[in-house]
Amino acid sequence: MSDTSTPPPPTQTESERIRARALHMMGDDAAVSWDADQALAWEGMLELGRRLRRRAEDMLMQDYDLSVSMLGMMGRLRCADRRTLRQSALAEAMGLSVSRVSRVIDLLEERGVVQRTQCPSDGRASNVTLTDAGISRTTSAQHALFEVVSGAFADRLSPNETATLAQVFGRLLAEG
């Protein structure tokens, strides 16, 4: 009696799965025009970004009750004159809408790490100030995030790889 069942497909490597995802997203154009390295470069960049962001978000939320966006805002406030920025300036610096920033500031106020006040020069605007507790949490969270990113990314690259990535990303970002 012969076995007519189909053998299981060969196991794909992580790189092959990530390359395949590029083809699933962009279809025949990518399948015809891109080689395996191009597909892996594109989809690998996206996947690594997702993984690093998820790892950072998980650590920050678990250890500091903060998201990456929250820490980004707090870091900008920490560097600002008198640790204060207009809410609209904070939104612009973060690349977020004023309404999104307002909701995040509400959460940060509940945690006691920022304080919102009326802008003295424009009664329609709000200022956001990082509190002393906010400075402490920002500093600790930034240190922890640096350790996560270093261990998961920067420390795993050679100096030549780092220089290549910096050159490529710098050029692509400058070109828009």
Describe the structure.
The protein has 176 residues and is mainly alpha-helical. Among the domains are: 13-53, no CATH class; 68-140, Arc Repressor Mutant, subunit A, CATH 1.10.10.10. Helices cover 68% and strands 10% of the residues. It is built from 7 helices and 3 strands; from the N terminus they run αααβααββαα. The chain has helices at residues 14-33, 36-64, 68-79, 87-94, 98-110, 132-152, 159-175, and strands at residues 84-86, 114-119, 122-130. Strands 1-3-2 form a 3-stranded antiparallel sheet. β2 (114-119) and β3 form a beta hairpin. α2 (36-64) packs antiparallel against α6 (132-152), α3 crosses α6 (132-152) and α4 packs across α5 (98-110). The protein is elongated and about 70 Å long. The mean pLDDT is 91.
Helicity, as a percent range = 55-70%
CATH topology of the domain at 68-140: Arc Repressor Mutant, subunit A
Q: Major sheet, described briefly?
A: 3 strands, antiparallel
Helical run tally:
7
Going by CATH, the architecture of the domain at 68-140 would be Orthogonal Bundle
Going by helix content, strand content and strand pairing, the class is: mainly alpha
Mean of the pLDDT scores?
91
How much β-strand is present in the residues?
A: 5-15%
Q: What is the CATH class of the domain at 68-140? A: Mainly Alpha
What general outline do the C-alpha atoms trace? Answer: elongated
Number of strands: 3
Trace the largest sheet across and list its strands: 1-3-2
Q: What low-confidence regions span 5 or more consecutive residues with pLDDT below 50?
A: none
Radius of gyration: 22 Å
